[in-house]
Specification:
Layout (H helix, E strand, L loop, with lengths): L1 H52 L11 H57 L10 E3 L5 E3 L9 H45 L5 H97 L6 H37 L1
Antiparallel strand pairs: 1-2
Length: 342
């Protein structure tokens, strides 16, 4: 009964899954048909508009060689102009791409540094700098040894440490920028004061101008560094949030897998108990069958015809019951092996 109920439940589940899959396929086919219908409608409308816009009487005019030459010259001039524009655009694109490559390399370096710190501090891979492996191209790569478990406290400490480091760097760059601006203002005031004096020479003025240019260059570089640090901080925050979400998903999946394992273990225990009970019943039936066979052998006078037939009937029924029990035991053992393999 239990086996038939399990089989019927499995069949119903499979039927429901197949029906749901068929429904999804029909919905997708319906959506594709609707899209094709929309495309056909738009094509028909566009074709009708083109037919309506075509004039009835189109004059057949031929160009003379002079007109053809003028058209060719105009086209050549236009092509030269387009060529110049394309060359300028190509130069601009190459410069922009080089700048993007440099910026991406800087970001990649920061990300590698952060990944190195993450492997060493969070994943507790202390031998990360000493373990290398060569791939097919002969390039050495670091082998990362994944730990068995990662604590949330270490991840939060790493996250807080990186945020504090980024904040400190941003504050230092802001302070240095402010100091440079103060120095520029002081230099400007000093230059104005010196300009008011009568004894200011042209050499001192040029010197102050050079220093001012240097300070402005420093301010520009510090501004670029501050912008780069802000961008890298935003990217690091985004990556850390993604890692946090992945960690939560992994924990949820672990809980689900633990529940499934517990369910399968309980099912295996139940099946083993049923197998033990059926084996006991089989032993009892075998003993009864042996007793009946011994009675049949040791009967000297011979049984009556009715007793003989009844004994034969019981013998056949017991043999059928034994075969049925053996078949059930084999089925249960196969189910246990399948569950263990899963």
């Amino acid at each position: 009964m239990d086996q038939s109920m399990n089989i019927s439940m499995q069949q119903s589940i499979q039927q429901k899954a197949s029906i749901a899959q068929q429904m999804d396929e029909l919905i997708q086919q319906n959506e594709l048909l609707l899209k094709e219908n929309d495309y056909l409608d738009s094509f028909v409308i566009r074709f009708k508009d083109e037919e309506e816009n075509v004039p009835d009487d189109v004059p057949n005019t031929l160009l003379n060689p002079g007109n053809k030459l003028a058209i060719a010259l105009l086209e050549s001039v236009a092509l030269e102009h387009e060529k110049e524009q394309m060359s300028k655009q190509y130069l601009d694109d190459t410069i922009r791409q080089k700048a993007m490559i440099i910026a991406s390399e800087q970001r990649l370096a920061t990300l590698r540094r952060l990944m190195f710190q993450f492997q060493r501090e969070v994943l507790q891979d202390q031998q990360i700098s000493n373990t290398f492996a060569e791939n097919e191209g002969g390039v050495q790569q670091i082998i990362h040894k994944m730990p068995k478990q990662v604590t949330a406290s270490s991840l939060l400490q790493f996250y807080e440490k990186q945020t504090t480091n980024l904040q400190v760097v941003a504050e230092q760059s802001a302070k240095s920028q402010k100091n440079l601006q103060d120095q520029i203002q002081v230099a400007r005031k000093q230059s104005d004061k010196n300009n008011r004096q009568a004894g200011l020479s042209q050499i001192d003025f040029e010197q102050l101008k050079i220093e001012n240019d240097k300070l402005q260059d420093k301010v520009a570089t510090r501004n670029q560094e501050m912008l780069r640090i802000k961008l890298s901080a935003g990217n690091c925050m985004r990556l850390l949030n993604e890692y946090k979400n992945d960690l939560h998903k992994i924990c949820e999946n672990k809980k689900k897998y633990d529940q499934e394992v517990n369910q399968k273990q309980t099912l295996i225990k139940q099946l083993e108990e049923r197998i033990v009970v059926t084996r006991k019943d089989l032993d009892v039936d075998n003993k009864v069958l042996q007793v009946l066979r011994q009675k049949e052998i040791f009967a000297h006078d011979g049984p009556q015809s009715v007793d003989y037939l009844s004994l034969k009937v019981t013998q056949t029924t017991l043999e059928k019951a034994v075969k049925e029990m053996e078949r059930k035991i084999a089925i249960k053992e196969r189910e246990i092996n399948n569950l263990k393999n899963k």
